[in-house]
């Protein structure tokens, strides 16, 4: 049967389109990062069928058999190198260093493919010649072609098996479906090419050769996934990955089921577990709280990371749900930062703020301590005189009434002295407790009792015309850091006292509402201008005159309350003055996230 030149363009259009698609996609992939070996492997893998398809088009359009045969011989590297290139790409995806046998098989496959190519060019062992058909010149299989076909099927089976085995461990986020899609796109040309270019020709059945054309289907699958997901599936994004590996922060990609699909070197260093072993592990193993999942986006939430040695590392977590361009949820991108140094700095800052508050109270404290000590000294002096009189009376055997009066007065003086000493000791003890840095562990405490202690410490600041009113509700014990909360309420109380000036009232109210406790500190002072309310929690911002405030009290208080899982706000008041409202949860984690 003679070929019909009129039908050549029609049948040549399919391999031509496939070759064009494969070549264009290969160049697009190569442009992403030509220096990366995996990128080059993907590009060459698609260039091979493109080469094959273009020379097949030339063979189909050839004017004579000799030209067609030459075109088929030139196309040989395009189809003989596909098996080893496919194995090499799969090896890069699944990390060939983990599988030495697969790497060895890939190298052997390259050697055999090069051997088949040279053998065909020298002896036409794979392409014996061509034969005319209605769609152009078809290649006639040579005597060694069945051996090459068996080698191709063996290599394809090994590659498919390795890829399918690696999909659950290596697919990043929602790419498990994409991986299966690419695998289907890979199996299709193998199956079609095997049927039309191997099995049927060996059986003597002439059909159009669709092997090169079917690789266009694989290219279209990759292109579709790229458009759908917004990133090139065939390339690993090596430049971006290098950036992730150099980051000191930990980055992980979490699948919808909570398993780690990718972990950078930062997470590897913190957990002490190799990044390859982290792949597939549950994120809950290392970060038990808070909830990490699709839709639970967070920004700088404090938590803990548990290393393989059991060390608890304080971290700041941020997470974002990842979706493709169609809106399908693929998983969660997790970023964490080691905040051990920040925790240490924060602790020192809180201690500094606490000491600054003590410094503001120092003059009043000194006055309060000096008063009881002064009358203790005076009383003890008078006691000495009385006891001298007592001694003389005993010596002179004075009347019992005089001795009785002296002894009674001496006992009263001693009682007053003891009371004064106890007052001084109490003031020193409360100041010492307040200025102590405290412990990280939390304990159950009565918030009303804490407020009473705060008021006693703030007593030196309270002028005669200032009243401190208390309206306490029935409060259950709250799990907290008592020293930190006392610092917060002391800051708020002193601010209220300063706001009312020489005279006025400060009202402290506590209530239990549901699963939280609320504390209000009201004053009838000068108030805060509306344009400054948003700035009062900023560090070093103060409305006091220069030298009278550090601007740290409210910012530290805000951090402490937030660390307890609560909030502190300024609520509007209908009358003059200011109202601070503090809300604390009752169900508080001993070490909240």
Count the DSSP helices. 17
Mean pLDDT: 75
- Quick one: CATH superfamily of the largest domain? Rhodopsin 7-helix transmembrane proteins
Main sheet overview: 5 strands, antiparallel
CATH topology of the largest domain: Rhopdopsin 7-helix transmembrane proteins
The level 1 CATH classification of the largest domain is Mainly Alpha
- Indicate how many domains the architecture comprises: 4
Shape: rod-shaped
Record the strand order, biggest sheet.
4-3-7-6-5
Unreliable spans = 1-7, 169-174, 588-593
Report, as a whole number of angstroms, the end-to-end distance.
80 Å
In CATH, the architecture of the largest domain is: Up-down Bundle
Radius of gyration from CA coordinates: 42 Å
Strand content: 15-25%
The helical percent reads 55-70%
- Secondary structure class reads alpha+beta
Count of strand segments: 14
Write a structural description.
The chain is α+β, with helices and mostly antiparallel strands and 593 residues long. It folds into 4 domains: 5-229, Rhopdopsin 7-helix transmembrane proteins; 247-338, 2-Layer Sandwich (Beta-Lactamase); 342-437; 441-593, Heat Shock Protein 90. Helix content is 55%, strand content 17%. It has helices at residues 8-32, 37-60, 65-74, 76-80, 82-93, 100-123, 145-170, 175-202, 211-229, 238-246, 265-271, 275-278, 340-396, 400-435, 447-458, 482-500, 553-563; strands at residues 127-133, 136-141, 250-254, 260-263, 298-306, 312-323, 329-338, 443-445, 465-471, 478-480, 503-513, 516-523, 567-571, 578-585. It has a 5-stranded antiparallel β-sheet with strand order 4-3-7-6-5.
């Amino acid at each position: 049967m003679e070929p019909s030149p009129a039908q050549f363009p029609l049948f040549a259009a399919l391999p031509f389109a496939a070759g064009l698609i494969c070549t264009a996609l290969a160049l697009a992939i190569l442009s992403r990062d030509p220096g990366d070996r995996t990128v080059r492997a993907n590009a060459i893998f698609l260039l091979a069928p493109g080469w094959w398809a273009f020379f097949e088009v030339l063979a189909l359009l050839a004017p004579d058999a000799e030209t067609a045969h030459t075109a088929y011989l030139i196309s040989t590297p395009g189809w003989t190198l596909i098996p080893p290139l496919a194995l090499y790409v799969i090896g890069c995806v699944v990390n060939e260093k983990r599988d030495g046998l697969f790497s060895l098989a890939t190298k052997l496959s390259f050697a055999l493919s090069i051997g088949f190519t040279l053998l065909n060019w020298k002896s036409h062992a794979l392409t014996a010649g061509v034969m005319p058909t209605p769609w152009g010149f078809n290649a006639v299989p040579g005597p060694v072609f069945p051996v090459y076909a068996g080698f191709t099927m063996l290599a394809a089976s090994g590659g498919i098996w390795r890829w399918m085995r690696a999909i659950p461990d290596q697919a990043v986020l929602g790419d498990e479906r994409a991986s299966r899609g690419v695998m289907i796109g890979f199996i299709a040309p193998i199956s079609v090419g095997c049927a039309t270019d191997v099995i049927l020709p060996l059986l003597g059945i002439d059909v159009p050769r669709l092997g090169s054309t079917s690789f266009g289907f694989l290219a279209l699958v990759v292109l579709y996934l790229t458009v759908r997901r917004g990133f090139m599936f065939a390339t690993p994004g090596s430049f971006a990955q290098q950036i992730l590996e150099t980051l000191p922060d930990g980055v992980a990609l979490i699948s919808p089921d909570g398993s780690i699909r990718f972990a950078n070197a930062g997470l590897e260093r913190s957990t002490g577990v190799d990044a390859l072993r982290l792949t597939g592990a549950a994120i809950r193993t290392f970060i038990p709280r808070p909830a990490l999942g699709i839709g639970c986006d967070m920004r700088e939430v404090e938590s803990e990371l548990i290393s393989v040695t059991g060390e608890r590392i304080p971290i700041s977590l941020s997470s974002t749900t990842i979706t493709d361009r169609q809106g399908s949820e693929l998983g969660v991108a997790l970023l964490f930062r080691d905040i051990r140094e920040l925790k240490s700095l924060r602790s020192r800052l809180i201690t500094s703020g606490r000491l600054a508050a003590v410094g503001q109270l120092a003059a009043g404290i000194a006055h309060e301590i000096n008063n009881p000590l002064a009358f203790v000294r005076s009383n003890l002096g008078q006691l000495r005189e009385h006891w001298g009189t007592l001694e003389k009376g005993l010596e002179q055997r004075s009347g019992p009434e005089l001795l009785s009066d002296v002894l009674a007065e001496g006992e009263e003086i001693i009682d007053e002295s003891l009371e004064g000493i106890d007052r001084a000791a109490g003031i020193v003890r409360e100041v010492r407790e307040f200025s102590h840095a405290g412990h990280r562990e939390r304990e159950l405490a009565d918030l009303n009792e804490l407020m009473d202690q705060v008021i006693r410490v703030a007593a030196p600041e309270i002028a005669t015309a200032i009243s401190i009113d208390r309206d306490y509700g029935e409060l259950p014990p709250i799990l907290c850091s008592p020293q930190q909360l006392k610092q917060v309420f002391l800051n708020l109380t002193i601010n209220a006292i300063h706001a009312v000036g020489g005279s006025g009232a400060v009202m402290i109210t506590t209530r239990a509402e549901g699963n939280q406790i609320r504390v209000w500190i009201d004053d009838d002072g000068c108030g805060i201008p509306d344009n400054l309310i948003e700035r009062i929690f900023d560090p070093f911002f103060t409305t006091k005159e220069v030298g009278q405030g550090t601007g740290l009290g409210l910012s530290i208080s805000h951090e402490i309350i937030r660390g307890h899982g609560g909030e502190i706000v300024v609520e509007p008041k209908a009358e003059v003055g200011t109202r601070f409202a503090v809300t604390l949860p009752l169900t508080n984690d001993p070490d909240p996230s």
